[in-house]
């Protein structure tokens, strides 16, 4: 009877639960199927007029299969398209995008930039002149126009930053028209649009030696990760490619999105959070927003972040990143102006303009070049500051994580102790034999974080970087705080009027060095060189002068005459005259004995009956 009542009760609960689920299905959208996702995938490998590319067709096929497996509503896959087929592919895909929430275009193949405009190259392109691109190629703007109707995300992925094979043979119709290396960086005009380049604007990408390019290899690993925000996804791809190419190739993303996460594949439903879970990190939201802004890395993204978080640790990091981008933009503008000035100077010279016009153009070119050099210097400084800010952030976050882990370990130990005490008290109260408890019930177990490396090496590396910036350190930035690094901090104390502890690398020292915006330690040059700003230049002296020991020009000393080696005096006993005087008589006979040989005396002759050889070995000398 009781079993029948319980069975009826559970049946009612199951029916009620089914009705609730059915109602929710009709009233709430299913996140896994609410969005319409469409994609166009193109891979051009079989080029007819330039060397073929081995990987684009393979890359495109693998990406298309991946998107189909991720349940995209539409996946159009095309390979080796000529100009007509390529135009038709974009036209047909535009019909699929009209009611889509997410639209993706993936292109692998050759691409080039002419006068600031990016082109995707069909396989039948010839491109004898730069203006042929208007008729024989597809602009990147065309791809952006096609996906413009998408409501939530418009994404263009370009694995097309390879070396331009048409550059050597392509003729320029205008000398001032630029022909870029790789693709040019571009900011999309519409919101919620991202353009992912396999390599940063103005640089080239590697096609790879395996089945896929390094860029496509990483995309295949991360592109359809459920719930992964697209900005985070592309950041992971960037890290993978830079590691695979030893930092030679840096993928880059242009455009911006809002604050909400956007993923190509929805995340599975999250399990209900535990009521007794750990307390939320108050910096977690700021850190997450900072990382998103870092993935986008545009002035607009950093301005939005600073409006939301105007002060604090991450605000300082955001300002450093924003200043770096501003310096890069200023350098690019200065470089463009310098090129224009040089082109104008060359044009006036070619047209044989007036001397005044040519002189003015030359002055403008010099001024533009000086501005470019200053902007380049500022860019390098801001890049160094931003890189150091990221290293400081990593060290700070690592220290915070270690502290949180230690705090958690301490809390776990205290909880274990409290549990052990409660068990002991209960055992005493109930007269239970405490020997039955485990021997290590109240033991303190070492935390896994006790073996973690401290942040000292990162702090040392940051301090070495700052000391090099102010001219006090010339060694390698390796985080090893030894004699050379300590000597560099001693020099900073000496010339910077500080009293820092040189034996350790501390955050206080990093802040002190970072506060100096100019060189602190004097520039020391080798003998024969002098300091000129931030560089050493060779000292040149006028004719007749040479560089002295004190690095100043001194008059050359006159060379002293070199004494000639005296000839040995002739011995009168061996002189030619003596030898002539002592020459043998006309007979030419010599008398040789134990004392040697001598001419036969005058009026004497030899008795040759000794050996039969006249003049040698004679028995005796006979004189009249």
Walk me through this protein's architecture.
It is a single chain. The protein has 624 residues and is of the alpha/beta class. 43% of the residues lie in helices and 12% in strands. The chain contains 15 helices and 17 strands. The chain has helices at 2-27, 56-69, 83-97, 133-136, 140-146, 214-222, 230-244, 284-296, 299-308, 313-350, 355-429, 456-469, 483-496, 507-514, 576-581, and strands spanning 37-43, 74-79, 102-108, 111-114, 117-120, 138-139, 153-159, 193-197, 252-256, 529-532, 535-538, 545-547, 553-555, 590-593, 596-599, 604-607, 620-623. Helix 6 runs antiparallel to helix 7, helix 7 crosses helix 8 (284-296) and helix 9 packs antiparallel against helix 10 (313-350). The longest helix is centred in the middle third of the chain and has 75 residues, at 355-429.
Quick summary:
The protein has 15 helices and 17 strands.
List the helices and strands and how they pair.
Elements: H1 2-27, E1 37-43, H2 56-69, E2 74-79, H3 83-97, E3 102-108, E4 111-114, E5 117-120, H4 133-136, E6 138-139, H5 140-146, E7 153-159, E8 193-197, H6 214-222, H7 230-244, E9 252-256, H8 284-296, H9 299-308, H10 313-350, H11 355-429, H12 456-469, H13 483-496, H14 507-514, E10 529-532, E11 535-538, E12 545-547, E13 553-555, H15 576-581, E14 590-593, E15 596-599, E16 604-607, E17 620-623
Helix pairs in contact: 2-6, 6-7, 7-8, 9-10, 10-11, 11-12, 12-14
Average the pLDDT over all residues and give the rounded result: 78
Share of residues in strands: 5-15%
Structural class: alpha/beta
**Assembly category:** single chain
Largest sheet, if any? 6 strands, mixed
Q: Count the beta strands.
A: 17
Order of strands across the widest beta sheet? 2-1-3-7-8-9
Helix percent band: 40-55%
Counting H and I runs of at least 4 residues, what is the number of helices? 15
Q: What is the terminal-to-terminal distance? A: 179 Å
Shape label: extended
Uncertain segments of ≥5 residues (pLDDT<50)? 1-11, 13-33, 273-277, 429-454, 580-586, 610-618
> What radius of gyration results from the CA coordinates?
44 Å
